[in-house]
Amino acid sequence: MAESHTAVVAFIGDRAYKVKKPVDFGFLNFTSVESRKVACSREVELNRRLAPDVYLDLSEVLDGEGRSCDWIVVMRRMPPDRRLATLVERGEDVRSDLQQLARKLVSFHSTAKRGPDVESAGEPAALRRRWVDNFTGAEPFVGSIFDRDTFEEIVWRALDYVDGRARLLGDRVRRGYVVDGHGDLQAEDVFCLPDGPRALDCLEFDDALRYVDGLDDAAFLAMDLERLGAAELGREFLGWYAELSGSQVPRSLADHYIAYRAFVRCKVACLRHEQGVESAADQARKLAGMALDHLRSGQVRLVVVGGLPGVGKSTVAGALADRMGGVLLRTDQIRREMPHAADLDPGAGYGRGLYDRAQVHDTYGEMFSRCRRLMEYGESVVLDASWSNADEREAARALAREGRAMITELRCDAPRDVAMARLAARVDDVSDATGAVAEEMAGRFAAWPEAVEVDTAGEAESAVAAAWRILQACR
Predict the structure, then answer these.
(1) Cα separation of 421 and 52, whole Å?
(2) Whole-structure pTM value
(3) Rounded distance, CA 268 to CA 405, Å?
(4) Which residue of 141, 190, 314, 343 pairs with 84 in a disulfide if CB–CB is 3.0 to 4.6 A?
(5) What keywords sit in the KW lines (predicted)?
(6) pLDDT (tens digit, 9 = 90+) per residue, 156-193?
(7) What does the alpha-carbon distance between residue 350 and residue 440 come to, in Å, rounded to a whole number?
(8) H or E stretch including 259?
(9) 45-97 pLDDT tens trace
(10) Where do the domains of the chain lie, and which CATH numbers do they carry?
(11) Would you say 60 and 71 are in contact if contact means Cβ atoms under 8 Å apart?
């Protein structure tokens, strides 16, 4: 026998017989015979899409007077020792099976149902609504199973991400990534057989919850593998899925969907605990922690790196962008791409030619425009500039608020003689700053109390490590 919060499965010979429990959780209601019939019928129909040789039939149960009293899903019994969760827990190599499953899932998604009703379930408002519904279902357990601070941080981080990523989510809808998927891809329900994996037990009780971004569908299994202690396998599986589907996936979106799936299972674990399964409380806490970890990891960030010429800010900014997996935008590069830049003298001095006030303002404006679009698409951004003007810094803060991004401001600093020596040693650098420019800028550099200072006088590795620690602390 096996049991979940919604069903009981009996194993007899080479068959498995599944009966729905007469339960009402609000988000599903199986209390009537007719509702269980519909659910069982849909289970057979929908699961035959991925496992047609497993879901065999639907059988009616009659009472002593010949009246229908229940319905049973009849399935081919799967070998328990080939269950993906069991294999992972035993430490067996399942990479080949997961690659096959990723390929099978991509193929399934490529022909899955699409259309206006499916697409509408993938819009930002629908994803927000699914989060809110899960928060509503989990809130009664706040205080008894997990703490209020954890719950509230999950709420604001999840909704902040959705509200700031309308362009990304809407674009994925338009590109056809939202499909009638599996909806509940857990390692317990995947069997690794010699002729290929079988994924069972898709979500059948609410079509709208099954209408998801294909990446969201795959993220469920990535989350479950992490829950089993195989986080790297989960990341690999998601990577294979993204590569095979040809989908460009921002890291933040993958983290967001893993967090969503972890919280869905957290809510289910809370319900299991309410049904009397004591160990489910620890599971719920673990899943809530996973959700929060991924929401923090997927936080879209705006890192402002500034300072005088020669202090090493571009070295720090580039290294941070690499470590974050973010995009680096540098004013020194952007100003050369501006209209009429070729007609202006880059060596005219501070505040003149290519560096006159209007040109500088337009350069920052172009950088902000590019940054806005990148953040809307879920990318974290590092902005490398002098940031000598307080108005430009305030514009960056406003941009972070608008894009629901976390901003960190860093001011790189090194002694004058170190900076001057670096400027003198530059060869073929995109920056035109000279020692004279640095001296003049230093006299006009507005106070920057909001920034955290990074000592860049020594080795680059040391400065980058210090800056990285600051970012890690600001989560």
Answers:
(1) 71
(2) 0.89
(3) 30
(4) 190
(5) Kinase, Transferase
(6) 999 999 999 999 999 999 999 999 999 999 999 999 99
(7) 7
(8) helix 251-274
(9) 999 999 999 999 999 888 888 888 999 999 999 999 999 999 999 999 999 99
(10) 2-75 (no CATH), 80-297 (3.90.1200.10), 301-473 (3.40.50.300)
(11) yes
